Each structure stands twice: as C-alpha cells, then as structure tokens.
Amino acid sequence: MSTFRIDVLEGGRIALFSLKANRMRTVLTTVGIGIGVATLLAIVGIIQGLNASFDKQLATIGANTLYVSKFPWVISGDWWIYRNRKNFTLQQVEQIRAQSTYVTAISPLVGRGADVSHGAEQLSTVGVNGVTGEYLTISGYEVTQGRFITDADDETNRPVAVLGADVASGLFPNISPIGQTIRIENRPFQVVGTLSRKGKLLDNNQDLVVLVPFKTFYAAFGKQRPFSISMAVTSAEDVKKAEDQLVGIMRRLRGTPAGAPDDFSINRPEMLANTYQQLTGALYGVAVGVGLITLLVGGIGIMNIMLVSVRERTREIGIRRALGARKQTIVIQFLMEASAVSAVGGTLGTVVGLGLAKVVSLITPLAADVQVVTIAAGVGFAALVGLLFGIWPAARAANLDPVEALRYE
User: Fold this and answer.
1) Which of 44, 163, 195, 274 has the most CB atoms within 10 Å of its CB?
2) Element (H, E) at 348
3) Which residues neighbour 168 within 8 Å (Cβ) at sequence distance 6 or greater?
4) Can you name the residues that pair with 201 across neighbouring β-strands?
5) For residues 54-62, average pLDDT
C-alpha cells in the first residue's frame, strides 16, 4: 500500500476521532457551512425552477411561429413611432401566403378583452380573438370537443365561438358547452368547440380565451381595431430564413422606401426568451452572490475553528512529529478533518435547501426545480470550501517545530 494511501486512511481515522471528541465544535461548524449550502441551494433551486417554468410556457407558443404586427413584443424607444404605422390588410395576408416559400399556415389575428356570460355565469376580461381556420395549426391548441372555426364560418360571418379551457369550465361547470349560446358583450355566439389547456405565458392566461371567426369579430366589434398576422413556418430551423424572406416581402407590399426602417415588427418566441434573460440575469447574479457570501462566511468559520483546534492540539502534534510523523501526514489529517465537517454540513444544508425551495414553490407562485447535478455540486462544493479553508490551519500544524510543540502547555 502506498505511503499516501496510508496517510489518507490514518488521517481519516484520526480526523473522525477528533470530530467525535469535540462534538459541540463539530456541530457549530457543521451548522455554519450547512446554512451557507442551504441558502445557495434554495436560491439555485428557485432559479432553475423559474427557468424551467418559463421554457415550458414559451414552448406553448411554438418554436416554428412568427407574428407580424405594428408593435414589437418588447417596445423600446418612442411608442408613437409604432402607433403611427400603417395597418395591415387582408390582401397582404394573401400575398404573404402566395410569395413565402416557408409559411405553411397563416391567419390574421385581432383581439380585445370582453365580458363573456352564459345564464348566471359570467367571466370578466376574457381575451376574445378573431382568427381563421389555420390559426389552430399556428397556435398549438388542440380541439377537445366539437370542431374549430372553418373558412365557411369566416366567409359567412357566422356567430360561432371556440372556448378556451378556463372559459369552458367557468361558464359550463356541469354540462357540455357544445351547442350552447354564450354572450360576448351581450352579443350571442353559439359554441362549436373547446380547446386544450395551455397554461399561462408570463402573465397572460392562454386558457381564458374565446376564438371567433375573423370577419365575425369585425362585424360584431367594429373594423377600427388593427390586426396582426400569425404564421407557422416549415420547421424551427427555418424560422430565421423565413423571417429574412418575410422582411423583403413586407417591405415590397407596404411600399417601404429603400433605406427607410421597417414599418412593421416581426416577433418570434426567441425574443421573449432574450428579454427574460436580460431582466432576470442581474437578479440571479445578485441572488447567487448572496448565497456564495453565506457559504464564504461558513468557510471562514471552519478556518477559525481549525486554527483553534491546531492550538489546542499543539502538544499532540509535537508528539506525533517526534515519533516520526511527516508533514504530509499532519497536513492530510487536518485537511480531511476540515473536509469531513464541511461535507457533513453540505449534506445537511442540501436537505434543508431542497426543503426550503419546495416550501417556497408551494406557498408562492415561484417554481422550484433542483437538478441532481446541482445537489451533487452543492455537497462537493461544500467539501471543497472546507478543503480550501483548511489549508492554512493544516499548514500551520505541519510546520510547528516539534521541540517547541512538546513544550507547549
């Protein structure tokens, strides 16, 4: 057996004996590093949960979709510049369909908030959107009952409606909504279908929605409201190519002069992801920094207690050195002692941190999702902190003069 392995085994045995002999000191040191790991892991867990929740929400839009509108999803600069842009026309929608080689489905999209009721049941601020039949492919919704809007519904201005999951359950808790009549701003619409549940996207409830034929929407609620253009492209890999092609098509259709900026905005899900990262990046940095500082304080506590341990065991170190123990043996002993305390504290802190993250996710809207790699990293990092902060005490112990150490009282 190699000398290093013997030193490790013997150092580990002595370290464990020392920790057992100084229970109170061990407990206090463990608590210090445990608090640091618990804080850091709880913060990282909440951050990972929020990221996973946002990615899941963003996936409901569809990775292969584009939305052309007067306004960008994230407005920067003068709002009036976007407000004064020309509205789109249905002819432009058809021209995009004819000229784009990437668009597989396209639908105008117009919306407003409205009160929706059925009998004594009423829902406020429901998103009422006017669309055509191809919107089902673009939006990622699935029809759970009945059917979706058809081209015939749109061409003949039929007052029919397809209900989002929350609207269907809110207005028809005990019966099927198919064939029933709802009132949107006191106008009657017959329910022909219901949609699958999609959840929220940021603060927008995608299930609190009613879809009606596009032309029916304008006939019922007026033609002054501008619409946007939603479309699906061949694949997620082709989104950027489709966007570049679409810019040229739109500029030609709208007569935008060469050199002038675009008078329209092309929006895609990736833009929301970039904005989310910009908004939360600094916040996450500060949160993780707080956790690291807490862990640093725990590491300093380990170092101080190990220095006290070195002073108290000076005579023991002198005896071991006089009997032939090498500096390497003394260093390994104290490093293993510091790492063992830190690893135990890290394990306990991991359990507490996971519990804190879970509690936060249960009592607040914040999600928590701690990955296995993060748990292993938490325990490993705690042991590393103990190792690093144990170097100085271990070096002091190993460099004690044996003769002076034997004289120490």
Assistant:
1) 163
2) helix 327-363
3) 177, 194, 195
4) 204
5) 71
